[in-house]
Design goal:
This protein is an alpha+beta fold and 811 residues long. InterPro entries: FAD-dep_OxRdtase, FAD/NAD-bd_sf, FAO_M, GcvT/YgfZ/DmdA, GcvT/YgfZ_C, GcvT_C, GCVT_N, TrmE/GcvT-like.
């Protein structure tokens, strides 16, 4: 066994072997994998082995497509068969709402190049999958790139291909301890000796928590018991094989919450039952291995009853075996991938419950990240940094159980789920609730989406169409545009940067020049490839003292990047979290209200747009900024947490004379759309450069060197190939949600990033990316956007439809 190596991958499941292979494929040959037992000893060996390309996140779908294409490569490299069965599959819809869901899925597939996805009728689905009773279904989506494989063979193919490339694998050798040296490298202490490694990858699967605890972190993963059954040989299966010359295709029955495929001469039926049971909730026993859990047929009986009704042949088939084994999940069901904040050279590759759909993509992204400093893809939906310290063991348990029970249920865009809530609340939560606030949670923080009018229930009807919140949000938007609105901004990310070298460091980290004292600037943050990894408002409080405001969901993501680039001396950065909270006033009467409460001069002449000052508001010490994401005249007021209630009470009491109205995040997005303002994680992501994202005016190429500058120079000189545009959409009862294809003259040429209804202007709007050559075709009438299977005509707008010159915002 080696005593020194570049990387130790801990865990011999499909994900660990994929990471090992991709590291060698990309050029790192001095790598080893350490497994406490045999390869596939955790979740891998008993997996059902299904795979598919579709995913709710198109960026994850791209990596799933890569994974499936990879199997032929590793078979050829290793000489080991993956047991690949590319059968195709049908996703069955039992309701009209599910058909809408499938229309959205097909639409996403269009701009991902999945042109073979077909919406079909229940009759057509029955012809492809004759085991179904078509009377229970409305229709289906057919995907030719679905199937199943041999889990053990696939894992060994990855492992053998990695060994061909120079990797070494040490089996039956448990990792017992991880100790980091002062230089950031690791001593991996195993049963058979110590390996000194530059990097450690936690691909521990069922033991990922334990490998995390070795370095003092609690990863948000939990294993759930998962059951599927295998039938005896079925004459119906034999007849289908004979008539078609093919296997029975893969099938997902969403309403039945079932998945099915052929297994030898019988069938496999699996379920994500609603009464899911966690396995080994606090610790995973190290001696667990190639074992199964005791089946509990009573627990899955309701699902089987539906299955026998929807697929009658199963009712007559004998059950040969029920498999019950544990799989790990993160709270949202997506993997946990990437560098762990605060730990140099410690990498996560766990929580990958769909290992045979995602394992290849996870391995490629992580290998890219380790070798090149960037995953090479937009992996925000899988990044371990999307979670913070609020994801305790109990929170993870609640959210994983909820996610598991809803695995095949529709996730409506306006739906909020109850598990793990409320958890993080500011002091005005109860006051907002009394006013009819309908809350959502982001990073565990409760924030108001909209306010139900007096006498109406504060509950939203979930739908892909406009909901019962539509009129209430419209009223909030009118109040902001015509009088003054109040919005809580506590959920924004806040950072404090101090030190003698703070300004120089920020100028290196961000693409814009830092402001003068008492001023703010908008500043994108780029990675080394010149792609957007953040957008911030930066305020200079004093010499060597800055406050930075950004997107709440990216707080840990951005802190990881900041800390990775922090010099040893001269700069300190602190994440303020909910220690600094705030309220925003927006609308033409916001200055009038501020004048009655502010201890400083807030007139247009004395307190200009993008000014920032420390001033009293009533008796409350605060920071005040002249800015608003609504695109209207506005002020952001930031205070310590213990002053928030007093600030709220003061503003709402004094605001009565000015028609003050509370508004939520739905109205905020509607108003910001009227100004064509983009947002992090939709318009601004690590696949877009600043010039294509209409952020070029906030990039100062002349200020000296900063991260991503050379790439930004190239983008500007060469010109972006695509551009972000705002489109007016002829929608009716449903607006864009994001990820819809944009058509031009019968061809898909772009995609929607976000959008919705602009209530004040009474327009349906969409932001999206189109080829640069088409971005200037204003009013051409040859664009359309596909919404729930219907093409709605769309027009590119040459400028923001509300206050295009920014006169109100700057007034």
């Amino acid at each position: 066994m080696k005593t020194h190596t570049q990387v130790v991958v801990i865990g011999g499941g499909v994900v660990g072997c994929s990471v090992l292979y991709h590291l060698t494929k990309l050029g790192w040959k001095d790598v080893v994998l350490v497994e406490r037992s045999e390869l596939t000893s955790g979740s891998t060996w008993h997996a059902a082995g299904g795979f598919h390309t579709l995913n709710g996140d198109p960026n994850v779908a791209k990596l799933q497509s890569y994974t499936i294409d990879l199997y032929k490569e590793i078979e050829e490299k290793s000489g080991q068969s993956c047991g690949l069965h590319l059968t195709g599959g049908v996703m069955l819809a039992g309701t009209r709402e599910r058909m809408d869901f499938l229309r959205l899925a097909q639409a996403k597939g269009r701009y991902l190049g999945m042109d073979d996805l077909q919406l079909i009728t229940a009759d057509e689905a029955a012809a492809i999958f004759p085991l179904m009773d078509k009377k229970h279904f409305e229709g289906a989506l057919y995907d030719p790139i679905e199937g199943h494989l041999d889990p053990s063979g696939t894992t060994h193919a990855y492992a053998k291909a990695a060994k061909v490339n120079g990797a070494e694998i040490y089996l039956r050798n448990k990792v017992e301890e991880l100790v980091q040296r002062p230089d950031g490298s690791w001593d991996v202490i195993t049963e058979k000796g110590t390996i000194h490694a530059e990097h450690v990858v936690n691909a521990g699967g069922l033991w990922a928590r334990e490998v995390g605890r070795m370095v003092g972190i609690e990863l948000p993963v939990l294993a759930m018991e998962h059951m599927y059954l295998l039938t005896e040989d079925m004459p119906e299966v034999a007849a289908i094989n004979k008539d078609t010359g093919k296997e029975v295709p893969h099938c997902i029955d969403f309403e039945g919450e079932l998945y099915l495929r052929q297994e030898r001469g019988g069938m496999l039926m699996g379920t994500y039952e609603r009464a899911g049971v966690p396995w080994s909730e606090k610790t995973t026993p190290w001696d667990f291995g190639h074992e199964l859990l005791q089946p509990d047929i009573d627990r899955i009986a309701p699902s089987l009853e539906v299955g026998f009704k929807h697929f009658p042949a199963f009712a007559q088939a004998g059950i040969k075996q029920i498999i019950n084994g544990p799989f790990t999940f993160a709270p949202d069901g997506n993997p946990l991938v990437g560098p762990v904040r605060g730990l140099q050279n410690y990498w996560s590759a766990c929580g990958v419950m769909a290992g045979f759909s995602q394992g290849g993509g996870v391995g490629l992204a992580l290998a890219n990240w380790m070798i090149n400093g960037d995953p090479g893809f937009d992996v925000w939906g899988m990044d371990v940094a999307r979670y913070g310290d609020w994801t305790t063991m109990a929170y993870t348990n609640a959210k994983v159980r909820e996610n598991y029970s809803r695995r095949f249920r529709i996730a409506f865009p306006n739906e909020t789920l109850p598990a793990g809530r409320p958890l993080r609340m500011t002091s005005i939560y109860d006051r907002l609730k009394e006013k009819g606030a309908v809350f959502a949670d982001s990073c565990g923080i409760e924030s108001a989406m909209w306010f139900a009018p007096d006498g109406t229930e504060a509950v939203e009807q979930v739908s892909f169409h406009r909901s019962n919140a539509f009129d209430a949000v419209a009223a909030e938007c009118r109040a902001v545009r015509e009088k003054v609105g109040l919005f809580e901004i506590s959920g924004f990310a806040k950072y404090e940067v101090t030190g003698l070298e703070a300004e120089g460091w920020l100028n290196h980290m961000l693409a814009n020049t830092m402001p003068a004292i008492g001023r703010m600037v908008l500043a994108p943050m780029l990675n080394r490839e010149g792609k957007l990894i953040g957008d911030f408002t930066v305020a200079k409080v004093a010499q060597g003292h800055f406050l930075i405001f950004g997107t709440g969901v990216a707080e840990d993501y951005h802190m990881r990047w900041f800390e990775e680039h922090l010099p040893e001396t001269g700069v300190q950065i602190r994440c303020l979290g909910l220690d600094l909270v705030g309220l925003s006033l927006s609308g033409p009467k916001s200055r009038d209200l501020m004048t009655t409460v502010a201890g400083g001069d807030v007139s247009a002449e004395a307190f200009k747009f993008m000014d920032f000052a420390k001033m009293d508001v009533g008796m409350i010490p605060a920071y005040v900024g002249r800015v608003s994401f609504t695109g209207d005249l506005g002020f952001e007021i930031w205070v310590k947490a213990d002053y928030l209630t007093a600030l709220y009470d003061l503003l709402t009491a004094k605001g009565e004379d000015f028609g003050l109205t509370l508004f939520g995040s739905r109205a905020l997005r509607s108003l910001s759309l009227e100004k064509a303002f983009g947002s992090w994680a939709t318009e601004y992501r690590p696949i877009y450069g600043p010039y294509e994202a209409a952020m070029g005016r906030f990039v100062n190429l002349n200020k000296g060197d900063f991260i991503g500058r050379d790439a930004a120079v190239r983008e500007k000189e060469e010109g972006p190939t695509r551009k972000l545009v705002l489109m007016d959409v002829a929608a009716t009862d449903a607006d864009v949600l994001g990820d819809e294809p944009i058509w031009h003259r019968g061809e898909v040429i772009g995609w929607v990033t976000s959008g919705g209804y602009a209530h004040y202007l009474k327009k349906s709007l969409a932001l999206g990316y189109v080829p640069t050559a088409l971005s200037g075709e204003y009013g051409a009438g040859e664009f359309s956007i596909e919404i729930l299977g219907r093409e709605c005509s769309a027009t590119i707008l040459p400028e923001a439809p509300f206050d295009p010159k920014g006169e109100r915002m700057r007034g």
